[in-house]
């Protein structure tokens, strides 16, 4: 299976914030943003694996800035690392100022997807090649985050999480 570059999985989803998608403060409802990120990340994971993909875990979401009604929101998703059957997808969320057109980073998220066959069984995926400095740094941290997610899900014993333990020994 040929390795694929991280850039090949880049997915950019741009959409507006409508009144039905806001909370009582007229800001984007968190669950709506989670759904948009899930959609962008799943396309990204599909582009890398060229398989059916399912969301295995939402590893991290930081709602750093509220997103007002009427905003133009862009979700940029890219696979940061591929393991055997699972992939980590990193997302950056940008909000565009109407007058200046300047994009400000509002949120960040990390999801894990698993490639599966028609019966839902996990299948092997190609390796991912990071190229830019940011892609390399996200690639390097991905194993640690995978272990943390597995420990939190009760699928790995903390004593087996070698990368995580190394982090606390630094
Ligand atoms: C995701 C799913 C396919 C994993 O199945 P499983 O029986 O746990 O399979 P495995 O134990 O072989 O794990 C498959 C891969 O997922 C990874 N994985 C499983 N749970 C994970 C978690 N919580 N965090 C990170 N990675 C996880 C495993 O480490 C493994 O990765 P690798 O093969 O790259 O090393 C299965 O749990 C599933 O179908 N879940 C429902 C998915 C879904 O419907 N999502 C939408 C929710 S509405």
UniProtKB/TrEMBL annotation:
Domain HotDog ACOT-type: 7-119
Family annotation (Pfam families): 4HBT (PF03061)
InterPro entries (alphabetical): Cytosol_ACT, HOTDOG_ACOT, HotDog_dom_sf, Thioestr_dom
One GO CC term on file: cytoplasm
A GO term, aspect molecular function: long-chain fatty acyl-CoA hydrolase activity
Database matches in SUPFAM superfamilies: Thioesterase/thiol ester dehydrase-isomerase
UniProtKB keywords: Hydrolase
Similarity section: Belongs to the acyl coenzyme A hydrolase family.
Name of protein: Acyl-CoA thioesterase
Species this chain originates from: Aurantibacter aestuarii
């Amino acid at each position: 299976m040929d390795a694929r570059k991280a850039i090949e999985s880049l997915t950019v989803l741009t959409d507006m914030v409508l009144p039905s998608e806001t909370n009582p403060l007229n800001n984007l409802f968190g669950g709506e943003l989670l759904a948009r990120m899930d959609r962008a990340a799943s396309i990204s994971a599909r582009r890398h694996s060229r398989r059916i993909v399912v969301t295995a875990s939402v590893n991290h979401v930081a709602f750093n800035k509220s997103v007002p009604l009427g905003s133009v929101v862009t979700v940029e998703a890219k696979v940061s690392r591929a393991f055997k059957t699972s992939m980590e997808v990193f997302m950056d969320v940008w909000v565009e100022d109407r007058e200046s057109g300047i994009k400000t980073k509002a949120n960040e998220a990390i999801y894990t997807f698993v490639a599966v066959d028609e019966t839902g069984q996990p299948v092997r995926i190609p390796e991912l090649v990071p190229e830019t400095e940011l892609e390399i740094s996200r690639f390097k941290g991905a194993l640690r985050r995978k272990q943390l997610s597995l420990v939190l899900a009760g699928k790995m014993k903390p004593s087996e999480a070698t990368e995580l333990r190394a982090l606390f020994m630094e």
